[in-house]
Q: What sequence folds into this?
């Protein structure tokens, strides 16, 4: 199984801050990586697919990139609605696997 | 855009069975792979199973193989997860989600809660 190691587990930040979340795969996943936002009691929301493609309707302050097997989610200017938990997920091969999650909390 | 609505969750004793369902609407159900993803209390997301659009290809995480069966009914636009020999660690909110090959899981249901008691 492909392991996704996500860091940090928690980010404390303020509105307007730029934050970066990293996810590393233990083998090649050929850019088949998605990022989701999860809020308590709500369904996960797809933000980015295929490493850097923005899902329709997702604000442009969200972006994704990769360097080899390391993937990054960046929020350029944190907004109040962005405080949530974020997960990376590989869909290169089954079983699909998620990172452990990063909780973005108010500083 | 579409909608997914899960049902069938509840409280069940360990070792018993439960069947979850997911009703799809607003999109061409037969064109998508359909997935189950769960989240245990206080834990992260865990992918559980998929059935492809051809209804034949199915994949599971190891921890549910031989106990869970995923199926779909294109005539009813429904996705099911039959769960047998339930364990306490199957306790979770179960989400159904659709995905095609390139876009990841872009549509999710609101989830249904399964609680397995000892």
A:
């Amino acid at each position: 199984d492909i392991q996704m190691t996500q860091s940090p587990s928690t980010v404390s930040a303020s509105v307007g801050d730029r934050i970066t979340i990293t996810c590393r795969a233990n083998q090649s996943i050929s850019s088949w990586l998605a990022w989701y936002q999860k809020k308590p009691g709500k369904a996960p929301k797809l933000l980015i697919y295929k490493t850097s493609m923005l899902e329709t309707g997702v604000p442009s302050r969200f972006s994704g990139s990769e360097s080899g097997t390391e993937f990054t989610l960046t929020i350029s200017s944190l907004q109040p609605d962005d405080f949530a938990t974020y997960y990376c997920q590989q869909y290169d091969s089954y079983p699909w696997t998620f990172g452990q999650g990063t909780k973005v909390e108010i500083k | 855009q579409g909608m997914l609505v899960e049902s069938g969750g509840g409280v069940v004793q360990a070792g018993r069975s439960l069947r979850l369902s997911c009703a799809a609407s607003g999109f061409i159900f037969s064109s998508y792979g359909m997935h189950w993803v769960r989240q245990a209390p206080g834990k992260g997301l865990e992918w559980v199973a998929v059935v492809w659009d051809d209804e034949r290809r199915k994949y599971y995480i190891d921890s549910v193989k031989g106990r869970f069966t995923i199926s779909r009914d294109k005539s009813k636009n429904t996705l099911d997860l039959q769960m047998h020999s339930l364990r306490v660690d199957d306790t979770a909110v179960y989400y159904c989600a659709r995905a095609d090959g390139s876009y990841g899981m872009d549509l999710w249901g609101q989830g249904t809660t399964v609680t397995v008691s000892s």
